[in-house]
Design brief:
Layout lengths: L4 E9 L3 E6 L2 E6 L8 E4 L5 E5 L3
Antiparallel strand pairs: 1-2, 1-4, 2-3, 4-5
Length: 55
């Protein structure tokens, strides 16, 4: 089972990677499945799977 969490992109890194903030916890994830985004849905598999627009 995978859990999707909303994460804020705080830094774009080389090789389709990004540093994201999950409520104060920072984690490096792959963003090869999404374009540049401010927020992504992040899986426990360390992959951003969908970009989310801020409203």
């Amino acid at each position: 089972m995978c859990l999707a969490l909303l994460a804020r992109v705080v830094e774009l890194l080389p090789n389709q990677r990004a540093m994201v903030d999950l409520g104060g916890v920072r984690k490096e994830v792959s963003i090869d499945l999404v374009d540049d985004a401010q927020f992504v849905l992040s899986l426990t598999l360390d992959r951003g799977v969908e970009k989310v627009k801020r409203q």
